[in-house]
Each structure stands twice: as structure tokens, then as C-alpha cells.
Amino acid sequence: MNGKIVPSVCSYCGTGCGVLFQVVNGKLVGTMPLKTHPVNEGKLCIKGWHLHEYVNSPTRLRSPLIKMNGRFRQATWDKALHFASDRLKAIIEKYGPDSVGVLVSAKITNEENYLAQKFARAAIGTNNVDHCARL
Amino acid sequence: MKDQIKQWLQQGKVDIFLGYKMVEGHPLPHFFVKDRLYEVDELVTGPIRYPLEKLAIRLAAEDPEVKIGLLVRDCNRRALNVLFLWHQLNPDNVMSIPVNCCPSNLADQANCSLLKPEKAGPYKEMVGIDNNISIEEAKGFDQEERLRRWTYEFDKCIKCYGCRDACPVCFCKECSLEHHALVKTGDLPVDIPIFHLVRAVHMAGRCIDCGLCEEACPMDIPLRLLYKMVNQIVLNVFKYNPGIDSVQSPFNMLGDEVTLEPKGLNAA
Amino acid sequence: MTNSISEIEEAGCIFVIGSNTTACHPLIARRIIRGKEKGAKLIVADPRNIHLARFADVAVRHRLGSDVALLNGMMRIIIHNDWHAKHYIMERTEEFEEFCRVVETYPPEKVENITGVHPRDLERMAELYATNPPGSLLYAMGITQHTTGVDNVKSCCNLAMLCGYVGIRGGGVNPLRGQNNVQGACDMGGLPNVLPGYQPVGDPEVNNRFSTAWGRKIPDRPGLTITDMVPAMLDGKLKALYVIGENPKLSDPDWNHFHHALKNLDLLIVQDLFLSETAQVAHVVFPAASAAEKDGTFTNSERRCMRINKAIEPLGDSLPDWEIICRFSKAIGYDMTYDSPEEIFREMAALTPKLYGGMTYGRLGIEGLMWPCPDNDHPGTQYLHKDGFARGKGKFHSIHYRPPAESPDDEFPYFLTTGRMFAHFHTGTMTRISPHLDVQQPKGYVDINPKDAEALGVKESDVLLISSRRGEMEVPARLTTSVEPGVVFMPIHFGESPTNILTNADAFDPLAKIPEFKVSSVKIKKL
Q1: Between residues 15 and 54 of chain A, which touch chain B (CB distance below 8 Å)?
Q2: pLDDT digits (tens, 9 = 90+) for B164-187
Q3: By C-alpha distance, which of B9, B2, A85 is closest to C240?
Q4: How far does chain A reach from its first CA to its final CA, in angstroms?
Q5: Predicted complex ipTM
Q6: What domains, with CATH codes, occur in chain A?
Q7: What pTM does this model have?
Q8: How far apart are CA B228 and CA C165, in angstroms?
Q9: How many CB atoms lie within 10 A of CB C393?
Q10: Quick one: pLDDT at residue C239?
Q11: Across the A/B interface, how many CB contacts are shorter than 8 Å?
């Protein structure tokens, strides 16, 4: 048996409450408020207290999916990346980089947002980058 | 203490020891294990509290045979006693190391040195209930004022369920506070006063007065006082003090034989 | 937020407008209540009778979309009573005279006609806010999701500047961010016109610096916003869309419209934790790891950049978003290789010197640091504009009230407004699968005032057909006085009751391109 307590930040609203994840045998089993955190001082809302539940949901995607004849099929990363990049490259070649849009996310990390817009601007070559803060 | 913990881990008397460790300036609960024995040197006993016994229940749920050691303050001790009585933890699998926290002559009233609610602000003092007042002071308000003040406090509730989720002795699989027939779900404010009274009733004969619920309450509702008042009734009627008396609670699990018999005033 | 979350407790007056804080930002609501209990005055202005209104010294329910008129009316009273911060205005602001002329045209009676707020209440709001310094102004999507969203925000800034509350401890203009990392997504350049750190793509020095760092020439013309992308998809100009961690199909206004736009794409790639409504119509879906399965940082509403830490391994074959983006980029021929998020953070901080330049993972620790944090000794910034505004002088904007794009008429006689409820989040992908949250509210509903319900012969839980000019949907009724007669409210979380079938995609703020989710008109029929 092994377990650990991992400090983190809640991924629901923009308040940014400090949480502690409880991990037992590699499974996320609970969430607690971080008592000495400057934002939430050891308190959470109903969503924060149950933060681990969405992580453990059986509805989580576990493998890449490619749609063929209107139905999704599981695929390896190699296949899915190949499929997507071939098509994307063809579109860029035919219609130019501004025919592509990238929607980044208010849910992913700073590092990932940085990479996503770098991907749009440097890898594709378009400023068509936005996110759902407006929505 | 650290040598004792190391010894237990090395000898396999415990598989996991629950204590605290400083992580980047913050005392966090920590699972000490044999594989990382050196970490025991970094063990701290405070200064803050987390429901370690609640973590212990989660470990035991994963592996009922696991041997758990933990730091216990007086409140943790009382919580463990209740959890043993309600078969949530097996006393044979739990080793504890006491941490001196409460001045001993106050232990019966469970006045923990860590529980020092801040002084109520002027508005709260005027319309609500100061988290520092005693049962007697709370009863000092006339009935109408008492209702008004408690209603103000309950009105603030944002229904985080933190009082339940932080509670070391809340372990039910199905919670009445999520039962549509008992409590209105789906909206704020909560169903007043049903929501808080349902929880208060469930704390009767259960609450060990650790105050973690109040510490977890985003709205500073004086929950500890509320449950203390309920348990004063339990003490008066049944002569039962949860966590201190190591006998079965007068309140039994559903399906168990019900023995709700008030003890006479002179009974032991 | 110009000021920090904990400072709300230090305010002399807290003014909450367009934020159902106890439900949507509960731990900020804690600070509001604590501030109130410590002696602050509390003003709540919201078209709905929200939970927080119970604790207010004055609470008003102004008509949907009438915020500018309400705020102008308050400001006129403040100026007339000489409560404004004259020295501050002289020293730190500009264009005050023109602003005064506009505000002067909003006498209380006119404001009452537009907003429905009684002059006595308006007077009280103005007095409480202006005479109890410092005043902390808080708002959320109730201010921004309008055709006049930018005007509303500017009016909030006008009010705070008028009283000298910007750049002081305990005061400020404090927008509450709806998602954990909206602030970060904007900071990182997740916008069509700016690179990380709000550095304009068109600025030659900036463009050059990034182009050099990334080894590719960055285009210097601003790109399309999400609101502009939809017509571009319908016109066939936008052929491919890569959607990371968002469910725009459910969160976008006018669901039917957006659905057609997505169907028109040659390639839709969706990267998400779940097979969301948007992922279901994708050509390829990349499974992403959750926040518990990776390292990184989030930046909260108060600009505090904080670390998240990997607690468990990614589920199944899922991967952290940063790894997927690196692999995808490599596959289309642009090499991005990083050992860890920390390495990405270092690159980002170096290119964003003014805001993040002084931050490192080591310095962030558990508490994080608040930007601007320009160098390694900088302690971070608790509140902004302390010694002056970023742009030099604070500008008063002269703003007139404009009505919302749609108002009730004979055919569609009810106002519809939308929002969140306390147990769910955004499009519900995360909360509806969480057993303890689902139990609170398993399905969609529409809030309707008992008076309206009686007139329509509607009882609790009766199914209603709600229709707008865009579409129609069936949803069970919930009778509540939290909405005024003539107004109905629907939460946005429920995919089978997609509120945005009804809302207005063509009505959005011309500058910010935020759709007017908060106001549309509908008719109601009992089924």
C-alpha cells in the first residue's frame, strides 16, 4: 500500500482555491481544502470538495478516436496524429494558414496555452487563436 | 517520537504512518512509509490540523488489513473511539502516538488550544452568533432573537457540504443531506432550517467536538456551538459523551436493535 | 481583478453587480460576507433576486441590460452631492468634463424609467459607495455578456475612478473570472491580436522578438475571434478547427447556427477529457489528461500564478495537453520538444518579462506569485495602478445607455437570461458526471415567477415549450421569486436542454465580441 497527499489548485472557477489531492495506490480518492492557502484558507465550495470525481469518471476518454463512416473508432496515437496532420497539412497547402483556427482553453495550464498559441502562430502560421472567455 | 515511528515502520507494526510534513513552507498531512524512512526526520506535529482519521478510513477502505499509525491529539483520540465503536476502523490495526495539545483539565469539554475563532465583526455581533460564545450565552437570547440570529447564520450557507466532508465521524455511504425528500436540493440558499437541523440531529451522539466543521465553513457559521448544544441534550438525557465513553452510542445503526432508553438522572 | 481576493474583506463598501457570487464564486462570496460582518456596506445590483441580496444594505433588481443607465445615474448623484474624489480626478485622470456632461443627462427619474430602480434606492447606492472608502466593485458575466459589455465595464471603471478607488488597497475594479485559467489563457496570448503578455502581434519589435525566439516568422495581422470564426466556417473560409479543452458547441450562442458551422468544416480536431457535444461532431479526438495528471500553472482572477502538481498517472492512453501539442506540432513539421512544463514556463517567462519575468517554479511554491512580477527579487503585485495607471492618466469614458438587442414584444413577451447554478459548472462536462454534484440537480430547468406561472396555468415541474426567434426547446418549470415577473432564467449546464438554442448569436459586443447571453426574448407555452 502506498499513498500521498499532493497540493494543487481547483480547476473549476477562477477563484483558484488551494486543494490537496489524496492518492491511495495510484488512485485519486479524495479532495481536501489546503488549510494554509492564501486564497481559500482551508475552505472549499461543493465543486471543490468533489474535484476528484470528474477525474475518476468512467466517461473519460482513454484513447484517440478517428471518425470513419460516421462512427468513432479507437486508434493509436501514431495513427490519430498521422490522420490529423496529413489532413491539416493538405488544408494549409491548399487554402493557406489562415484557413485554420485554434481554440485554446481557459481550462488548460499556462504552459499548454503558451504552446497552443505558439503552435497556431509558429507551426501553422496564423493568428486565428481565441478561447471561450467570451462565452 | 520519530524513533518510535521509524521502529514501527521498520518492524512492520504499521504500514503507513499519518503525520505532517512541511512542504514549501506549508504543513501538509503526509503518509510516512518504510521505503522512505528518512522522511520521518521531517515529521512535524502541527501547527494545523487535518482529519487524519478520515484519511485512515480511506486507506482502510482500500485495504482492510493495512496497519495504520497516526498522530493523535485529544480530538483525534475521541474520533478514533467513535470510529472503532461504529466499526469504521479496526482498533487492532491502528497505532497512535499522542500529541499534547489540549490542557488536560479541559479535555472533557474538548477546548482545543487550536480553536480560537476570531472576534466577531460588529455586524455579525449585532445580527448573528459570535463563534466564541458559550452554550449558556447562546441560550441567553430570548427565543425570538435566538431564532433570528441562527436564521441569519444558516442563511449564509453556500451548501458546500464541507461540514460533512471535513467531519472525521461522518462516514455514511448515503447522506440524508442529499436526500430530495428530506432536503430541498438544487438551489441556494439552503432549506432553512431543515438542512442544518438534519445535520445537527445526525451529530447527536456522534460529534466529538473537534471543530473541524467550523474550520471548514466558508461562511463562519458557529457549527461547533450548534452541535455542542445538541450533544449537551444527549449528555443530559442519556449520560453519553461521544468519544469519551467507550461504550456503544445510544443511537444505533439502522437495523440494529434500538435501545433508546433514557438513563435515570442518578444512573452512572 | 485590480486588487486581491483577501482585500475584499478590508473594503468600506462592497458593490456587487452582475455576479451571483454565492453560486458561481463561493469562496469570493465568503470574503464579501466577512467584509460585511466586519462593518462594510454591501450593495447588490442584479436583475435576479440572488442569494447575496439577503445580506445587502441596498439590493436592487435593475432591468436586464440597463447597467449603463444605472451606473450613470449613481455617478450623477455622486457628483451632485460633491462626493467624488476631486483631487484624485485632477491628479490621475483625464476627460472628466466631457464625462460629466454625459452623466448629467441621467437624472433619477429617467434612470428609473430605464432600469426600474426607485430614485430613493439609487440615491442610497450612490451614497453608500461614495462615502464608505475604500469601495470594492465586483462584477462577472452579468456585466460582460451583453451587446454593451465593453460599455458596462467602462462604466464600472468610471464609477471606481470617480470615487478614487482604483490603485488603493481594499478598493478596485474586480472582474471575477468564470474559469480557472481564463486569466492565464489571456496572459499566454490565447487571443487573436496579442502574443503572450498582451504584446501586440503587429508591433514590429514584439513580432521580431517572438519570430526570432520561435525560429519562424509570425504573421503580424490579427486573426479571427471565436465570434468571427463561425461566419468564416459557414462561408467556407475557415476549413479546419483545432479545439483544445473547450465545448463551444454548448457554450456558444445559437446552437443550431454553430452546429451548421462545425458541420461545414473539412477537419475538426477536438482535444478533451470527455466526448463533449463538440467532440461528438469531430473528425479526430485526442484524449487529454486531467489537471490531477500533470504539472503546470494556473493564474487565477487575482493574477496569482500557482502550480498544480501531478497526483496520478494519465488515465488510459490519455496524455497531458502539452505533450499532445508537442507531438502534433512535430507531426506537421515544426519541432517542439520539452522535457517538462517547467522548461516551457522558463521559455514563456523570458518572453513575457513584464508580467511573468521574475517567476520560476521554485519561487512560486504553493502560494504562487501575483503579476506583474518583472524580476527575481520582485515580491509580486497585490494591487494594480498603485502609483499611476498603466496608460498614464486614467480615462473617463463618456457612455450613453443603449438598449439590449432584443426586448420583449407582443410575439416574444418574456425576457430570458442565462447563467450558472451552484452545483454545476459551465457546460456540465465535469460536474454532471460527478455523483455528489449531479444529485443536487440532475437535469435542466427554467425559473419562472409564480405570478407568471399562475397566468399561464403552470405548476412546479410542468414541462414548458420555450421559443425564441432562433429555436425552441422543452424544459421543466421551477417556480421561484428569484426571477421577477416577465423574466425567466435558465442554467447553461445541460446538453439535453441547450439554453443556447434560444440565445442570440447575432447580438454581440462590437469590440469584445461577447455574445449577449444575458438578454433575449422568448415566448412560453405550457405543454
Answers
A1: 20, 22, 24-25, 27, 29-30, 32-37, 40, 42-46, 48-49
A2: 999 999 988 888 888 888 888 778
A3: A85
A4: 44
A5: 0.97
A6: 3-55 (2.20.25.90), 61-95 (no CATH), 98-135 (no CATH)
A7: 0.93
A8: 44
A9: 12
A10: 98
A11: 78
